[in-house]
């Protein structure tokens, strides 16, 4: 396999991309701008005092909840939790603002969580392209933010996350978002020039990562602030786009368990490739931990790369890393000769479940 030849041939990559994942990636800045616009429109749920926020969804529709959780942790007076289940935690009640998120609108766990939230009298906002969720929400008079269809759910992270910020700002729980989203959009427009298929391997960090990941197992580590969630996103994108295994973890927790497991079996450890995601707001002690940890694992694994977020605001910095990971995962798919869009295993599982 000539890795460089594959990564130099955008047309060949487009040819195996049946769901236009590359086009969706290129359009992420425009998607974020449009998502903000959608979130600022339409009715809000009737709510009394909100004591906590819950995002319920699965897979590509849930990760936006985690982004919201870490984004708002240092800015919002009430906590955000993410629920990836049929059932809701016992504390969820009328004071819980619930975002029910499903790109297709047909994910059974999410529909079940929606019914529970309704039964408990929660203020709800549904975020979807349509499907059963929209049908139920319209029936119940629940506000729906309808986002455009035609994307893979994981390629719609802007649509499935940014509107929640707009709603929280409209409800008076967050502020200053409009300027931050504008900065996010401008920053993504700038960095995509070096991430697109036409950019050379020398300039393109995402291509370099795909080259390093090829025939290896990526292990992505982030910090306890915002980058841990991005590490999770990297991992999920490699799984779903490249159809390959990947693992993630977070500092400082990984220093207390995972790091100990880098002694044996040596032949397998040599197959790992570690990426450490960094951000200027990482806790100072975490920064030191990352440095020491790198020194420890470098001897055991095939390589370690550190990637630092770029941009000013938290949103731009989070997405600067997400963008690299998203692109790297589709380049890795190209190296394996895999169509990044379809997720046949998930479709199969959903179909099997529907029949039982
Ligand atoms: O990215 C994907 O395709 C999946 O992770 C889906 O998001 C997940 O299966 C849930 O489906 P939906 O987003 O339609 O609720």
Primary descriptors:
356 residues, alpha/beta, 5-stranded parallel sheet, 4-stranded parallel sheet, 15 helices, 9 strands, 47% helix, binds 5-phosphoarabinonic acid
Q: What is the element layout, followed by pairings?
A:
Layout: H1 3-7, H2 10-15, H3 21-26, H4 28-39, E1 52-56, H5 63-73, E2 80-83, E3 96-102, H6 108-119, E4 124-128, H7 131-140, E5 144-146, H8 157-170, H9 177-191, H10 205-213, E6 217-222, H11 227-242, E7 247-250, H12 266-269, E8 272-278, H13 284-298, E9 303-308, H14 314-335, H15 344-354
Parallel strand pairs: 1-2, 1-3, 3-4, 4-5, 6-7, 6-8, 8-9
Helix pairs in contact: 4-8, 4-9, 5-8, 5-11, 9-14, 10-14, 11-14
The protein binds 5-phosphoarabinonic acid.
The site of 5-phosphoarabinonic acid has 16 residues, from loops.
Question: Could you give a short description of this structure?
Answer:
Helix content is 47%, strand content 13%. The protein contains 15 helices and nine strands. It has helices at 3-7, 10-15, 21-26, 28-39, 63-73, 108-119, 131-140, 157-170, 177-191, 205-213, 227-242, 266-269, 284-298, 314-335, 344-354; strands at 52-56, 80-83, 96-102, 124-128, 144-146, 217-222, 247-250, 272-278, 303-308.
């Amino acid at each position: 396999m000539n890795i460089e030849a594959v990564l130099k041939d955008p047309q060949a990559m487009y040819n195996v991309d049946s769901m236009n994942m590359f086009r969706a990636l290129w359009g992420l800045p425009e998607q974020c701008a449009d998502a903000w616009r959608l979130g600022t429109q339409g009715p809000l749920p009737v709510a009394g005092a909100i004591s906590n926020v819950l995002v319920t969804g699965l897979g590509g529709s849930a990760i936006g909840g985690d982004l919201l959780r870490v984004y708002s942790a240092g800015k919002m007076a009430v906590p955000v939790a993410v629920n990836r289940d049929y059932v809701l935690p016992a504390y969820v009640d009328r004071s819980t603002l619930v975002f029910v998120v499903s790109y297709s609108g047909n994910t059974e766990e999410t529909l079940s969580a929606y019914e529970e939230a309704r039964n408990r009298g929660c203020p709800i906002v549904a975020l979807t392209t349509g499907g059963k969720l929209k049908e139920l929400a319209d029936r119940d008079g629940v506000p729906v933010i309808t986002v455009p269809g035609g994307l893979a759910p994981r390629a719609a992270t802007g649509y499935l996350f940014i509107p929640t910020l707009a709603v929280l700002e409209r409800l008076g729980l967050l502020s200053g978002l409009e300027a931050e989203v504008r900065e996010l959009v401008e920053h993504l427009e700038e960095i995509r020039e070096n991430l697109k298929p036409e950019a050379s391997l020398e300039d393109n960090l995402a291509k370099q990562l795909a080259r390093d990941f090829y025939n290896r197992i990526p292990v992505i580590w982030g910090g306890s602030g915002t980058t841990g969630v991005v590490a999770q996103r990297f991992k999920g994108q490699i799984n779903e786009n490249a159809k390959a295994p990947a693992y993630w973890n977070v500092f400082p927790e990984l220093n207390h368990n995972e790091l100990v497991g880098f002694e044996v079996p040596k032949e397998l450890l040599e197959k790992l490739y570690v990426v450490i995601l960094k951000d200027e707001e990482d806790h100072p002690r975490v920064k030191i931990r990352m440095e020491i940890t790198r020194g420890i694992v470098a001897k055991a694994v095939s390589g370690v790369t550190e990637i630092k977020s770029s941009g000013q605001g938290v949103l731009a910095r989070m997405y600067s890393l997400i963008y690299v990971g998203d692109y790297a995962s589709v380049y890795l798919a190209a190296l394996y000769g895999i169509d990044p869009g379809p997720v046949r295993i998930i479709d199969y599982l959903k179909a099997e479940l529907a029949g039982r």
